Amino acid sequence: MNKSVYASPDQVSETKRHILTVLVDNEPGVLARVIGMFSGRGYNIDSLNVAEVSNDENISRITIVTHGTSEVVSQIEKQLLRIVPVHSVTNLDQEGSSVEAEVALVYIYISDTNKKKVYQLCDFYRARKIENENNTTIFEIAGASERVNRFIKEINEITKVEIVRSGPVAISSIKKNEEE
Amino acid sequence: MNNEITGAEIVLKSLAEQGVEVVFGYPGGAVLPIYDTLFKQNSIKHVLVRQEGGAIHAAEGYARSTGKTGVVLVTSGPGATNVVTGLTDAMMDSVPIVCITGQVPQHLIGSDAFQECDTTGITRPCTKHNYLVKDVNKLSSVFHEAFTIAQNGRPGPVLIDIPKDVQFASGTYEEKNKIIIPSHRLFEPSPDFEKNKIEEAVELISKAKKPIFYIGGGCINSGPKASTLVREFINMVGSPVTMTLMGLGVVGSSDKNSLGMLGMHGMYEANMAMHECDVMINIGARFDDRVTGRLDAFSPNSKKIHIDIDESNINKTINVDVPIIGDVKQVVEKMISVWKDKKYKIDTNSLNLWWDKINKWKEVDCLNYNNEGKQIKPQYAVQRLYELTKNTKTFITTEVGQHQMWAAQFYKFEEPNRWLTSGGLGTMGYGFPAAIGAQVGHPDALVVDIAGDASILMNIQEMSTAVQYRLPVKIFILNNEYMGMVRQWQELLHGGRYSESYTDSLPDFVKLAESYKAVGLRAKTTDELDDVITEMIETKNTVIADIWVTKEENCFPMIQSGSAHNEMMLSKDQKQDKKSAEKGKILV
User: Fold this and answer.
1) What residues in chain A have their Cβ under 8 A from chain B's Cβ atoms?
2) What is the pLDDT of residue A1?
3) B518 in Cβ contact with B541 (< 8 Å)
4) B335: Cα separation from own chain's centroid
5) What is the pTM of this model?
6) Adjacent-strand bridge partners of B162
7) Do B230 and B250 form a contact (C-beta atoms < 8 A)?
8) B223 vs B172, B310, B421, B431, CA distance in Å?
9) Could you count the other beta carbons within 10 Å of the beta carbon of residue B77?
10) Residue B479 pLDDT > 50
11) Vertex B319, ends A47 and B404: CA angle to 5°?
């Protein structure tokens, strides 16, 4: 019935990637409280994303990608809940089914020799060219981090690029009560 | 609008409505408007300290001895940075504090103005919550929320930073009962979820053969009623009980079930019982490293019940079998009713066997020390202090180090809220200002700061405060001219190389007291000790009693860092196995 009192060292659960979404009051300093907790207690932040939730301007959603054993991540969740302006913490990996996506903007150094290959690859990954006044080649790709990773790896093999990435945001895909 | 008042007036009005009687503080440029308003009123008393660090420890002492929230008022910049240690101390020991800091006017924020610092930035990790109030109309709601947050759930310090222009600006005051605090900002345990856990826990206790209660400071924070209930429940079970440093007094020392304190310098029988128990009931303690010793050897064969108001304490260092999130008073009350309803009774035979075993451990007499000769042993000094004060309403505070542990071992506490010590942070310099705060809260009680010669110098300037307010605080210095605990560790772990732990050029503490127009007393030998203690108690003035004790006494028993509960060192002669000593050296 009860789990063992002492997990011996070889039973420690494996380190995994976790996506936490944290709903917070949109007040000054709230992001500092959240990330300060991570650095102060020695936890990792792999990526971080903050934006207001559109239908309520007083609430923001912070999406944090972290990694750790399930014990560590559970401690992170509890420490986050101690922060006064935090409404809720959801571990999307624990929920089982969630959808995640991120956006990357890629500046591609293009030449006559690689042009064809670049456009083929972008087409394959459904990366969209963004027109801009300087007429440089900038593509936008959105999707799961793994897909973006693959795209970047392959385009890197063709030519030099500069990349910015948003880091993932994620949402639970479990059916909700629609009336809410 | 006619009913507008200034920000400074809102501050005082909020404090008054919150029932604040006393503020500990130190004025400065950025809080002058608040001090001006303070001057014009009579309902709130102000205690002027001599350094801001003293103010916050005094507020802690006041809070912990009265159960009320301590209030601190200091200026911007250095005023604010000087309270950082005290805020961290209050955070670690869960003391409800509201700290008001002045800030430079808003148009100067970020310009590196005179006495400007990023107060909310600096204090974010060492407060439960903090505010920079930019709108005078939000000031009263911030104050009311701050007091609620400081007291709610696991108590702690809250800081309110107020720019000077906001103190001058006019705005409206909102009363406490008009403020609605959203529930996510507060701690609200869900009673339904806990019910089956409580039943599971009580059933587990009823089946125990070797139970032990492990009591922490959470029982004290839950109010005096919690201690009464905890005692009642332990009596019903008939189980032995041990307390952490912060939990001393929850169960009286003279209680037949009490094994005293556990942990690094705890009682041998308490630690052995923790090691060998089959059911451990942790109420309001957090498996601190001073208590657990080596984690992988901590109480290896027990089922563990953990009652804590702070969910983050559950499974933080020690995995438990039955966690219960909630307030001690409410949870224990329910446990008692379940115990009664189900007519539970622990198996008498096994319990007797368990007590037999414990009584064997008691025979080791772990606090035994060699008390020969004319020189005063520090342990003896605390014992005599206890004997001569036990019939008086006495509050004991301490600084940090050997004297703190001897006080915990040899002073017997029968009630909660009488013992004020810096447990989590271990702040030297805590005890004297905390004693001032306790005396302010209890003008007629005897308040004694058991101190060391090194610690007392960290906030000695507060002598001036104690004398100004005619606070008859007693400072009882166990003077060995060493930072005793540092010296002890250097002796045991660093080959006796006493690097910088001897204090040369200590002041003459008697003359020091006299220079503040207080009373200085000194005892050099055992014959003088009782007279000095008696005179100290009877003197209606601030007293420093300088007790010269043997210089190289060690504090035993001791679990060295990196060792387990059943590997206690009872004396210096009992050498640690070298390998584990080396491993423990890197720990603190």
Assistant:
1) 2-8, 25, 28-29, 32-33, 36-37, 40, 71, 74-75, 78-79, 81-82, 84-88
2) 29
3) yes
4) 27
5) 0.94
6) B102
7) yes
8) 35, 16, 17, 22
9) 21
10) yes
11) 100
Please say whether the beta carbons of B97 and B137 come within 8 A.
no
Alpha carbon of B155 to those of B70, B221, B311, B492: distances in Å? Answer: 11, 8, 14, 37
- A20 backbone dihedrals φ, ψ, rounded to 5°: -110, 135
Interface test with A, best of B302, B312, B313, B317 (most A CBs within 10 A): B312
φ, ψ dihedrals at B519, nearest 5°: -110, 130
Question: What single-letter amino acid sits at A18?
Answer: H
Task: Decide: helix, strand or coil at residue B420.
Answer: strand
Across the interface, of A6, A79, A82, the residue whose CB is closest to B319 is A6
B383-386: which pairs have CB atoms within 8 A and are 24 or more residues apart? B383/B410, B384/B529, B384/B530, B384/B533, B385/B411, B385/B448, B385/B450, B385/B476, B385/B533, B386/B410, B386/B411, B386/B412
Pairing of strands A56-68, A47-53: antiparallel
3-state helix, strand, coil in chain A (%, to 5): 30, 35, 35
Spatial CA neighbour of B99 closest among B27, B133, B150, B140: B150
The interaxial angle of helices A145-158 and A115-124, nearest 10 deg, is 170
**pLDDT tens for residues A113-154?**
999 999 999 999 999 999 888 888 999 999 999 999 999 999
Domain ranges of chain A: 13-95, 98-170
Which parts of B279-423 are beta strand (E)? 279-283, 303-308, 322-325, 394-398, 419-420
- Chain segment A4-53, per-residue pLDDT in tens: 333 444 456 889 999 999 999 999 999 999 999 999 999 999 999 998 88
Long-range Cβ contact pairs of A74-79 (< 8 A, separation 24 or more): A74/B315, A75/B312, A75/B315, A75/B316, A76/A20, A76/A38, A76/A43, A77/A20, A78/B311, A78/B312, A78/B314, A79/A37, A79/A41, A79/B312
Give B149's contacts in chain A (Cβ within 8 Å). 84
Per the document, the length of chain A is 180
Most distant CA atoms of chain B, gap in Å? 78
First to last CA, chain A: 37
Strands (E), A1-78: 16-25, 47-53, 56-68
| Dist CA B436 CA B443 (whole Å) | 10
Q: Is the pLDDT of residue B580 over 80?
A: no
At residue B193 the predicted structure's pLDDT band, cuts being 50, 70 and 90, is low
User: What domains are there in chain B, each with its CATH number?
Assistant: 5-176 (3.40.50.970), 194-362 (3.40.50.1220), 378-548 (3.40.50.970)
Query: What are the tokens at B585?
Result: 């050296």
As given in the structure block, the two tokens for residue A168 are 């993932």
Q: Does B474 reach chain A within 8 Å, measured CB to CB?
A: no
pLDDT in tens, B247-266: 999 999 999 999 999 999 99
A78 CB burial (10 A radius; 0-12, 13-18, 19+): middle
Mutate which: A6, A23, A88, vs B, most B CBs within 10 A = A6
**The dihedral of CA B60, B61, B64, B70: what is its sign?**
negative
- Do B210 and B279 touch, CB atoms closer than 8 A? yes
- Token couple for B251: 């169960």
B577 vs B588: CA distance, rounded Å: 18
- Amino acid letter for position B324: I
CA distance A107 to chain B (A): 36
Identify the CATH number of the domain defined by range A98-170: 3.30.70.1150
Q: Choose among B124, B311, B312: nearest Cβ to A36.
A: B124
Whether omega for the bond prior to residue B557 falls within 30 degrees of 0, making it cis, is yes
Q: Is the sign of the CA dihedral B110, B116, B120, B124 positive or negative?
A: positive
CATH superfamily of this structure's domain A13-95: ACT domain (3.30.70.260)
Q: What are phi and psi of B354, to 5 degrees?
A: -60, -45
